[in-house]
Each structure stands twice: as C-alpha cells, then as structure tokens.
Amino acid sequence: MGTFGGKKKVQAPVYEEWSGNEYTDRAREGIGTYGDWVDNNWERLTTAPTAQDFTDIVNKGYNTIWNDYNRSAIENIKKQNQANYNRFGNMGSSGAMYGNDTLNRNLNDLASRIYSNMYGMADELAGNQFNRNLTSLGTVYGMYNDAGKIATELDNQNWDIRNQNIAAKYAADVQNANRGSGWNWGNMLSGAASGAATGAASGGGWIGGIVGGIGGGLAGGLSGNTSGNQAAQLGSSIGGIYNSVRGNSGGGTTVNLNTQGGNILGNQSSGYNPWRLNTRY
C-alpha cells in the first residue's frame, strides 16, 4: 500500500458485483428466445380466424346428421306419396299438392336449422381458436417480461454497485489529494460523505449523491471556519436540487446553480462561494 506524507494512502473500498445464479442465467438466456417467438408469431396469432376456416371440420362432424336427414326425408316423401294415392287416387289433386308442399316446407325448415347449427359450431370453433392463440401469445410475452425483469434487476443492482465504487474512489481521491495542502480536508470529507448520503436520499439517486458530495466536500475544504455540519448541510442542499435540474433539462425553467449556490452559502461563514469563484462575500 502506498503512502502519502508518511501516512498510508487511503484506498477506496470496491464493492463486488453479483454474477448471478442459474435462475438469472436461464432468464437472460430465455429473453431472446421468447422475444423472437413473439416477433415471429404475433401477427398470425392476432389475426382472428373465421367460421369459414372450420368448414371442413364442421362438415365432417355433420356428415352423419345429413345422412340421417336425407334418409328421413326420402322415407317421409314416400309415405306422403302413398297417402296421396290412397286418399286422392293421384298426385295432381289440390289436396295432394297441399300435402306435398307442407312436407317440403318442413324439410326445408329442418335443413335450415341444421345449416344454422353448423355455422354456429364453426363460429364457436373460430372464437375458441382465437382465444387459444391470444392465450399462447400472452403466455410467451409474459415469460419474456418476467425474464427481462429478472435480468434488468440484476443489471441495475450491479450498475448501482459500479456507481458506488465511483463515489468511494472519489472520496478517497479527495482525501489523498488534499493531505498537507492546507485545506480542511477533515471537514471536506465529512461534508462530502454527509452531502452525498442526503443528496441521494432526497431523491437524486446516486447522481444526486455525487453532486451533493462534491458540493459538501468543496465547502468543507475551502473554508476553515465552516464546520463539518455546515458543509454537510450545503452538500445535502446541492444534492437535493439535482432533481430540479434534471426534471427541467428538457425545457422550461431550469435551476440556476449559481443562484442556488449563492443562496445556500449566504447562510455560511465568510469566504469564497464555490459557485461564484470570482466573487467574495
């Protein structure tokens, strides 16, 4: 370990990232498979089938019914003709014609009912198939989302660890760079650490924490009269306004860090304003 001015050099802690396990590995491997399946099948599965698509199946299912209908129709026609001969002696009388017309209407009505049932069955089959298609699509898409969430959670966790390592290295570099420089690095570290913690907790995340840490550390180091608590307060305030800066980055009114810094430092002891380095209070 190196030394600085006869003292051991501060080494920043390095947090270890998690490599994952079989569960996360399988989830990451499956993401591409699930996504490809959805890409390749969504259009087909979201195109609703029609009753016409199931005509062959329904015709086969009703084949026996039509055979029974035809056999029954022939038997009834024969019986009707025999009854007409027995009653009227011929097929041309008005009574015979009326009987035949009534039988035909009944046979046509029965055939219409059969056709209607066939269409209803075909339409039901089409609807059932469409629902199954959507269920399959939803199932695989759900697997894709679940696997993605698992992998993303691991990536975000390791991303946070990398950023923590950056913040820890920054704090160590500040301490090492300012030993023997005349800076109040004790207050600087106190302000940086407290400012970073509070800046992150105030909603700025790790970026807000780093911004708060820089501000708190700078205030603590520049002013020998600024206490660690005052430096921490400054760093916390700076970390807290990070969200305002970020929230307005796309347009509208942005926060002026010079103004904000001046207002915050206005309550501190005399000295340089780190946001207006050319201005003395």
Q: Which terms summarize this structure?
A:
single chain, 281 residues, mainly alpha, 2 domains, two-stranded antiparallel sheet, 8 helices, 74% helix, 4% strand, rod-shaped, disordered C terminus
Task: Provide structural commentary.
The chain is mainly alpha-helical and about 280 residues long. It has two domains: about 140 residues, no CATH class; about 100 residues, no CATH class. Helices cover about 75% and strands about 5% of the residues. It contains eight helices and four strands, in the order E-E-H-H-H-H-H-H-H-H-E-E. It has a two-stranded antiparallel ribbon. A hairpin with a 2-residue loop joins strand 1 and strand 2. The longest helix is centred in the middle third of the chain and has 84 residues. The radius of gyration is 42 Å and the shape is rod-shaped. About 20% of the residues are buried. The C terminus is likely disordered.
> Quick one: biggest sheet?
2 strands, antiparallel
Residue ranges: pLDDT <50 for 5 or more in a row?
220-228, 245-281
Global morphology: rod-shaped
The Cα radius of gyration reads 42 Å
Q: Strand pairing plus helix content: what structural class?
A: mainly alpha
Number of alpha- plus pi-helical segments: 8
Can you tell me the number of structural domains?
A: 2
Give me the strand/helix succession.
Answer: EEHHHHHHHHEE
**Order of strands across the main sheet:** 1-2
Overall mean confidence score, pLDDT: 75
> Alpha-carbon distance between the termini?
42 Å
Number of strands: 4
Strand content: under 5%
Estimate the helix proportion, in percent: over 70%
